[in-house]
Amino acid sequence: MPLFPDQLCFNTASLPGLSLREALATGYALGFRAVELLAFDGYRHRAGELAGFYWERMSPAERRELRRWLQPFDHLALHAAFMDLHPLAPNPAIREVSLRQLEVAVQAAHALGAEVVTTHATPVPLRDYEELRPSLVDLYRWLGDLAEAGKVEIGIETGWPSPTQIVDLVAKVDHSNVGITIDVGHLLWALPGKQRSLPEAPALYNDLLSTHLRSAGGRTVHMHLHDLRLPEGRDHARLRTGIINYPRLLSDLSAANYKGLLSFELEETDSIAALASSREVLLTLLST
After folding, report:
1. pLDDT at residue 219 above 90?
2. Are 243 and 281 in contact (CB under 8 A)?
3. What does each C-alpha distance from 4 to 114, 242, 277 come to in angstroms?
4. Rounded to whole angstroms, how far apart are CA atoms 237 and 1?
5. pLDDT class of 1 with cuts at 50, 70, 90
6. Could you tell me the CATH number of the domain that includes residue 20?
């Protein structure tokens, strides 16, 4: 199935230093009709401060205002909080607060009409995936049930556990509303430091990415796009400044019948120019 320009999306984290309203207006002015919001606030990445929201702490008037800002957009995704969250923490107080944050993100998705909520599976120190898998399965079945009422999909983002284990986890969860968010730069750990300087490193990395896409198959529900620079391992870079083979990536997604959003997640100081140029790269590839 071919991919289409209306699948192009921007995560508001791509526009650091702007208020949420300013980021939405800027993305719309650049031509985006799909947006991914941060269901958390008060954090920053290497390029600046990030704007988001805490649904549970918003007044009815603030919620109405956010809905007005979102009216021009045709598609919406949310990224749940993940920094400071430990939903499998042995400490019950931390665990309960973390679970509540995830629950509220799904509630916000229902209320705002979001199509997907991306989450991060969080490890527990000194416990491996196999030990944690039963708890992870329970967690994501619970989130899937919460999401099901509003036809929202839950994505487990590439990172931890390994890509093979994430595919295994989604299979074990076996819930129609739970799938995988593939971040194109989050397989770097699988390329040891010494290999990153080799001439064949770009080909090796793109092979890893293709393998992950094929293994995820029809369970890929969301994509985070950026570029990856080697050997330094700098990710979340503007397109065409790194080693990601986007023609191959788009071909793989088309072959997998991918229907979700293609969300830019950049960390560049010249954020507006970086987002605009990255969008043009994808538009050109989609038109060929």
Report:
1. yes
2. no
3. 19, 23, 18
4. 28
5. low
6. 3.20.20.150
Percent with pLDDT over 90 in the chain: 94
Residue 149 has pLDDT above 90, yes or no: no
Residue found under tokens 């890509």: 163
Residue range 277-286, pLDDT digits in tens: 999 999 999 9
Total domains in the chain come to 1
Does position 150 have pLDDT exceeding 80, yes or no? no
Instruction: Quick: pLDDT tens for 17-48.
Output: 999 999 999 999 999 999 999 999 999 999 99
| 3-state secondary structure string across the chain | CCCCHHHEEEEHHHCCCCCHHHHHHHHHHCCCCEEEEEECCCCEECCEECCCCCHHHCCHHHHHHHHHHHCCCCEEEEEECCCCCCCCCCCHHHHHHHHHHHHHHHHHHHHHCCCEEEECCCCCCCCCHHHHHHHHHHHHHHHHHHHHCCCCEEEEECCCCCHHHHHHHHHHHCCCCEEEEEECCCCHHHCCHHHHHCCCHHHHHHHHHHHHHHHHHHHEEEEEECEEECCCCEEEECCCCCCCCHHHHHHHHHHCCCCCCEEECCCCCCHHHHHHHHHHHHHHHHCC
Pairing mode of beta strands 44-45, 48-49: antiparallel
Supply the mean pLDDT for the chain. 96
- Residue 161: domain span: 5-286
Q: Which two tokens stand for residue 286?
A: 């989609």
Sign of the torsion angle spanned by Cα atoms 268, 269, 272, 274: negative
